[in-house]
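Notebook entry, structure prediction.
Reason for the run: the old model in the group folder had no record of what sequence produced it. Starting over properly, with the input documented here first.
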Amino acid sequence: MAKQDYYDVLGVPRGASEEEIKKAYRTMARKLHPDVNKEPDAEEKFKSINEAYSVLGDPERKAQYDQFGHAAFENAGPGGFGGFEGFGGFEDLGDIFSEMFFGGGLGGRQGNRPRRGADLRYDLTIDFEEAAFGLEKEISIPRTETCEHCHGNKAEPGTPITTCPDCNGSGQVRVVQQTPLGQFASTRTCSRCQGEGKTFETACRVCRGSGTQRKTRNIKVTIPAGIDNGQTLRLNGQGEAGQKGGPPGDLLVVIRVRPHEFFRREGRNVVCEVPISFVQATLGDEIKVPTLEGTVSMRIPEGTQSGKVMRLRGKGIQDLRGLGKGDQLVNIKVLTPKKLTAKQKDLLREFAKAGGGDLPDEAKGFFERMKDAFS
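New structure, fully documented this time:
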């Protein structure tokens, strides 16, 4: 019976890249491994994909297979492809199954690498005006830092630090496990030195051999003018200490802005509501309006209607990107008096008799349209 094409076995096209071949093999190996897949033909399929990958995963063998097909390996003896049993010493297969079954991924080749420290988060609540104008705040942050006494070496200063005898300073040990399918080789973090590659007899008296200590630091945070609720400031290097000589993480300061009793924010603009009387709205007036920078005068024109929005240029909030300030939008609210004296009521009646009680033309037009719509 003719052998199936190795590209078909792995489900990749001819001309597939090395990475595509490896990815296809990893996916199928996880799915078909006999320890995972209990189907009767899983073991045979598993052997087939391993056979295919042993050729296509090796550039030299792949080139021979592309030129001569299966005939390139028909005369191979023990140790060659014709005598394939398990995985032998094929390094990439060992790495894959180390990752799949023995935890060799991060714990092996990467376990002794420098690792960046974790980021920290701090929620900082400020006032509306503080967000508008910016300020400098000092906050207290508890965090893990490199031990100042041993400088992260974990050993008491002045005591000997030696190369780990188990891993010879590499931080990794190679573990070979015999299985019915052959040998599985995995690389693990050395248990004696925990991947450091060195050992010591006397632990640091301050950090007790951890290399780090817990500290509370006061950090100054510069809050730029115009920052908004929910925005985040990143302080580089102010997070947790790194591991194995890695850099520290960052501090993320999340800004929370307290609501203001009078103002609210819409982008760069500040919005407020200002009440005026019926007389001021009718005859016009000059009123005082509070802004973030103090009180200013604003002219109310005659016949101002409730709900009219007036704009105070440049009285808004500074743009974070330096694009200038927004405006203050003043929403006019005309108040109707609830309690009138008898004299005030008589004056209003006289005003109404003189035609002051009639609706303006635009209101008449509105009611005419309503009448037409419902007739």
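Summary: The longest helix spans residues 18-32.
The old model has been moved to the deprecated folder.
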